[in-house]
């Protein structure tokens, strides 16, 4: 019975660590690294005839080139509403509306802005590592509880080793994501 409980602790820990990595990937995708990416518009909602709708449900979003996001509303009457929503979202981009399509031109990043973005990304990575280490701590506490209720000491050690291997794996994965995003930000 205790072996099953130990397996459950390890599986839950792995699942939680994977969720931390997924969350980091999502956070990093919202960091603007000089290349146009429609994901920076993900949180924007537009008043679509009285209903707040995600921008990607009222318009076609595309990146015609590395520094431009094009927003083509399915209903031209929505262009003004979309423009208002983008300005209200305060994403640091000013929409250019020509009556047919809205363009967002991403300015080239300054050296100072790049350094700020790298700091922001490192902070996100540190938060992810803290979460992973907390999952390790929780799992080790659960293993100690199982040991008090009869789990063999060698099995408990094996469980702790498995948890540590998972921790090392996910910390390394975090570092890989950070290095990738950092090089993306610093590449001019």
Question: Can you give a write-up of this model?
Answer:
This protein has helices spanning 2-29, 79-89, 111-148, 153-186; strands at residues 45-48, 51-54, 59-65, 68-73, 95-97, 102-105. With 188 residues, the chain is of the alpha+beta class. The protein has two domains: 2-30 and 110-186, Ribosome-recycling factor (Topoisomerase I, Chain A, domain 4), CATH 1.10.132.20; 38-105, Gyrase A, domain 2 (2-Layer Sandwich), CATH 3.30.1360.40. It has a four-stranded antiparallel beta sheet, covered by helices on one side. Strands 1-2 form a two-stranded antiparallel sheet. Helix 1 (2-29) runs antiparallel to helix 3 (111-148), helix 1 (2-29) runs parallel beside helix 4 (153-186) and helix 3 packs antiparallel against helix 4.
The chain-level mean pLDDT equals: 88
Secondary structure: helix percent: 55-70%
The CATH superfamily title of the largest domain: Ribosome-recycling factor
Radius of gyration over C-alpha positions, nearest whole angstrom: 23 Å
* CATH architecture term of the largest domain: Orthogonal Bundle
Regarding CATH, which class of the largest domain?
Mainly Alpha
- Largest sheet entry: 4 strands, antiparallel
Estimated structural class: alpha+beta
Distance between the termini: 57 Å
The figure for the number of domains is 2
- Extract low-pLDDT stretches: none
The percent range for strand residues is: 5-15%
Number of strands: 6
Please report the number of helical segments. 4
Overall 3D geometry?
elongated
CATH fold-level assignment of the largest domain: Topoisomerase I, Chain A, domain 4
């Amino acid at each position: 019975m205790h072996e099953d409980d130990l397996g459950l602790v390890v599986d839950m820990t792995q699942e939680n660590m994977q969720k931390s990595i997924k969350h980091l990937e999502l956070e990093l995708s919202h960091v603007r690294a000089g290349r146009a990416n429609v994901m920076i518009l993900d949180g924007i909602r537009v008043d679509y005839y009285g209903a707040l709708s995600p921008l990607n449900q009222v318009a076609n979003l595309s990146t015609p080139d590395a520094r431009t996001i094009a927003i083509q509303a399915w209903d031209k009457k929505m262009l003004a509403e979309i423009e208002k929503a983008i300005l209200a979202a305060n994403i640091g981009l000013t929409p250019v509306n020509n009556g047919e399509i809205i363009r967002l031109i991403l300015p080239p990043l300054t050296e100072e802005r790049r350094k700020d973005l790298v700091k922001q990304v490192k902070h996100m990575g540190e938060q992810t590592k803290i979460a992973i280490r907390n999952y390790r701590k929780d799992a080790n506490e659960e293993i100690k509880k199982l040991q008090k209720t009869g789990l063999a000491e060698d099995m408990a050690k094996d469980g702790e080793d498995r948890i540590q291997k998972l921790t090392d794996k996910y910390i390394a994965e975090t570092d890989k994501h950070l290095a990738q995003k950092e090089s993306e930000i610093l590449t001019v």
